[in-house]
Structure formats: C-alpha cells, structure tokens
Amino acid sequence: MPQRLVITLANNFELCFNIRDTPLAELWLERMSQRLAWPMDNPDRFYGFGTAQQEQDRATSMIQQCIATINSHQHIIDREFEYTQDGLNYLHNIFERYHGLLDQQTSEYWLSAPDTVRQALANLNLAVHRCETAMAEPCPRFVCTWFGMPKTKQLDVDTMKTYGELEIKFGTVYLNYCEIGKTVEDLSHDNDIYIGDDAFRPFGYYSADFNVAFYDWDLNKKLASMQQYIQQHQEFFLAHSIESVYNVKAQPLRFPVADLEYTGTQQQLISQIRSRQLVREVNIL
Q: What band does 104 get if pLDDT is binned at 50, 70 and 90?
C-alpha cells in the first residue's frame, strides 16, 4: 500500500502527508489510481488564506463574472447579487436547476448552452461556496478535484460509522463531498428555503476528490442546531428515514485518509501556503 501523498504548490513548495493504514484510505487510493484519465480542475481552490477583505473581493469578482456569462446566454438570474446567505441560497438553487444534478443534466438551458456558459454554471457553485467561506470564520483549506471523473463509488454505512469523525484536524486530508446538493449540515447552516426535495444529498458517493484542512474544529458543536432544524422540518426528514442528527445520513461526519508532516507553527505554515495558492502536482508514493 502506498505510504505518502505529496502535493506540490506554486514555487515547487511541497506538502507531504502520511496515508492512513485503513480500509477507508484504501478505497480512496483505488480512486486516486484512476485519476490521471481526467484533468485536475480549478487548481486554485484555496479558501481562507487571505484577509477577510481579500477573500470577499475574490469571491465577489468570481460570482459576478459567472452571473454575467450565464445571463449572456439567457437571462435566468433576475436578482441583483446580494452578499447575504439568502442571496447565495438563491444562486445555488439557480445552479441546481439549470446545471442539473450529476445524473440529471437534461434541462433545456443546459442542452442549448455553449461550453463557456456550462463552465460558468459549474463555477457558480464554486463561487457561492467561496462567498459563504468568506462570510464565515476563517477556516483555511484547499480542495483537489478531477473534472469529469465519474462519481460511482459509495461508502457503505458500516465504513461511514467506523471511520467517520466529528472533529476536523489541522493538516488532515479528507474525502471531498462530490455530489450536487446539500447535506443536513448545509441545510441547517444555510436555512435554505430554495432547495428542492431531490437536491438533498447526504454524503455517500466518493471519488479521488479530497480537501485538506488547515484549522481545527469540533463538529459536535453543530449537533444541537442541526437537531433543531430536523425537528422543524420533521415531515421532510422522516420521508428520508431520518429522525435525528445521530442517523449516519444526517451526522456532519468527515472521512480522513492522510495526515500532514510539518515542522514549525501552524501560522507559519499557513503563511507559506498563502503566497503559493496553486496546486501544480498531486503524487502518491
């Protein structure tokens, strides 16, 4: 079994990770072994490394570019951009309706749209999440995904219960949520009134896609508000066989596969990454 993950950032700055010796990590490595058939997309998906103003300016610019490109094909976004959670929920719903879920890209808009507009719709999702990150407490992280790689593998319930964790740890590599939709965690955080029934997607599918956290967070702190949200929307969640936040389909679990080797302080490392926000290579050794 391979032992290390090496990620090369701009200026040939390397981050080295020890891959965990677990069945979960083996599942991820199998997907990683297939990744080279698809290009890495958006290698600059770094969040929370700049100042609050820098992050907001970057997010606003990205989302306005997406809106302009999308509306140039057909004017489907009829609200002025509002840097509020409600405004972002509205745009996320636009993305879901016109881009379509991973297995439901059949809208008339999508089928008639040129590639530039399709890409803008895909980027709208990223832009919304960048805006949400900029509005929240800084949680530095970056995400690696491979464009077009099929999302066909699912974690079974026993694996999720055994290896899912309710604590985010600095320098840990986690499986990335790779569906189009929202989890209970997302719904309760966003108080989303726009999302449709078919866009509720608990974590299940996985791919080579991963994210790396450069912060610590106890996810147990979210459970009370998530349980309250479930109770407020009891009929909806009962239809999905969810009675409480302790159902594995509702818990805000993270699925770790590797851990960073580093010296110095966390702030020193974050500072080094701040000036190198571009993934150039990802290698398994």
A: low
